[in-house]
Amino acid sequence: MRRKIGFGQFDKILFFAPLGIFLIGFLSIYSASFQSQQSLGETLAIRQVLWMAVGVLIVFLVVRIDYFRFQDLAWPCYWGSFLFLLLVLFMPARLGAHRWVGLGGFNFQPSEITKLSVIMVLANFFSQNRVEYISRSKLAVPFLVVGVPFLLILKEPDLGTALSLLPILFSMLYLWGFRSKTMGWLLVVAVLVSPVFFLFLKEYQKARLLVFINPNADPLGAGYTIIQSKIAIGSGGLFGKGFMSGPQNQLHFIPERHTDFIFAVIAEEGGLVASAAVLFLFWLIVQRGYRIAAQIPDRLGSQLACGVTTMLAVQTIINTGMTMGLFPVVGVPLPLVSYGGSSVVMTMLAIGLLLNLKIHRPLF
């Protein structure tokens, strides 16, 4: 028996928490990108609002579709994202990387689409196969599903997005019933082969990983950004310097302050209060997401909720961690806060999927 569909089951916290995060991000992007004599309509913040409007529209469209219908879209979306990942390698480089594809006057990142398509394919596979009875040859499928886009995204290069696929895979394997001992051995193998991948990284990526241990080893080069970010976060205090009053931000000491290092702007101008508010709102989303995964009785829905929630949690942890020097700088945006249309739209699509799972979950 299936529940009668209606917006009485609409999770308002799960809907309004992302809007609260976006509002803080909007103010921070405006502060980080504002230029004198620039009208409001010309700012990056307004562009972000337009992308968010598209994202909200997508949410209301997605929640109306029974999530079981997404099974038919899983593999087409996966192969489509695979083709875009190949195409992006032939696009002109921006900031030394091939991550964007131009389409109809705007640019988008295929890697953002890839994360959701990988989750959909893995959820479909895990829902149709039981770990107890699967053959060894078929067991390779989920690793190939993740491995192929992992290598293509690493080639762009985009180390952060590539690495974020691994926690998604491991969380969904764990929910599937994969043995903890086996997963432990996989982690050991991943650690042992990581030096091999290090050899294939770009020089600037190697430098970022090396200065993670000691940023002061290259304070004016690879370590500059993280040093300035930590200064901004530390100087914010409890209540911050005030809107558009952060010296590190306004004097342009923080590179990429409207994208990867937007959290440093929030901490400097809003202090611990604003930073904690953002993290609390993200915690609400993650907590609701995993609760939905636990409440859904069918394997497809629970796997989708697990994968999407892990994706959002990992991005948040990596981004905030790297701005504070807890992780290497790997270029992962903070969902709904960092400037970027692809990230905003795909994050809202992920939120819409979680809302869909809550509304359409079976009652058996």
SSE map:
Layout: H1 12-33, H2 44-62, H3 71-88, E1 101-103, E2 106-108, H4 110-128, H5 136-155, H6 159-176, H7 180-199, H8 203-213, H9 224-235, H10 247-250, H11 262-295, H12 299-323, H13 341-360
Antiparallel strand pairs: 1-2
- Round the Cα radius of gyration to an integer and report it: 21 Å
pLDDT < 50 stretches: none
Shape: globular
Our estimate of the beta-strand percent is under 5%
Reading side by side through the largest sheet, how are the strands ordered? 1-2
Count of beta strands: 2
Structural class given helices, strands, pairing? mainly alpha
Main sheet properties: 2 strands, antiparallel
Q: How many H/I helical runs?
A: 13
What number is the mean pLDDT?
87
Measured distance between first and last alpha carbons: 6 Å
How many distinct folded domains? 1
Helix content: 55-70%
- SSE order, as H and E? HHHEEHHHHHHHHHH
Question: What do you see in this structure?
Answer:
- By secondary structure, the chain is mostly helical.
- It has one domain.
- The chain contains 13 helices and two strands; from the N terminus they run H-H-H-E-E-H-H-H-H-H-H-H-H-H-H.
- Strands 1-2 form a two-stranded antiparallel ribbon.
- Helix 11 runs antiparallel to helix 12.
- The longest helix has 34 residues.
- It is globular and about 60 Å long.
Summarize the structure.
With 364 residues, this protein is mainly α.
Please tag this protein with its features.
66% helix
